[in-house]
Amino acid sequence: AHLALAWVHLDRMELDAAERDLGNARLRLHGREASTTYFDLLSVAEARLVAVRQGPLEALAVLDSPSVSSSEATVVRQARRALRVRMLLGAGDIAGARGVLDAAPGGSSSGDGGCPGLAAGRVDLALAAGDLTGARAALDDWHPPQEDVGALVRRVLREFVVLCAERDHRGAEAALTRAVGMALGERLRWPFVEVPDA
Questions:
Q1: Beta carbons of 194 and 48 less than 8 angstroms apart
Q2: Radius of gyration of the chain (CA)
Q3: In 44-154, where do the E strands start and end?
Q4: Which letter does DSSP use for residue 177 in this model?
Q5: What are phi and psi of 22, to 5 degrees?
Q6: pLDDT digits (tens, 9 = 90+) for 18-72
Q7: CB contact at 8 A, 118 and 106
Q8: Considering only CA atoms, which of 25, 72, 79 is closest in space to residue 47?
Q9: What 3-state DSSP class applies to 40?
Q10: What is the chain's percent helix, strand, coil content, to nearest 5?
């Protein structure tokens, strides 16, 4: 429960509450027989907090620490990859981000693959590389489920950036307004941190 709350607080950028819940989760997990997935998820959540508080290089150091389990659960592996791509791009390491995406199942050209963070990373990588055509193609290939508000907000924010780059300012403004409207209900702020232009 503490770990789940920490993820919600991180999505809302309620950093003190996230840090408290991560500490409580670590205390509750310490010395107990719990699924190693919980420890691995805790590590990714802690890296997200470090990313905001200290920066991408420090978050990458947390992500580079070995996982508890010998083989991470798919959801953890995807979350770790997505955050790694985001942090590498934040540190200006385009080649490193491309390498992470190329190593993901389906490579850098696949659709969302069930992971909105990787789909976002494909758009972000193309934009960082100055490949507007590739960014548009990655965006058009990304179809998050309608019930996943966070993924929808992430996609619409990337649409905003792509439309700005395409000089469709009216469309970009409409996309940003739509993203804000969707995010308000869940009080989501993290997706906006991922897209500084927004």
A1: no
A2: 17
A3: none
A4: H
A5: -65, -40
A6: 999 999 998 888 766 567 778 888 999 999 999 999 999 999 999 988 765 667 7
A7: no
A8: 79
A9: helix
A10: 70, 0, 30
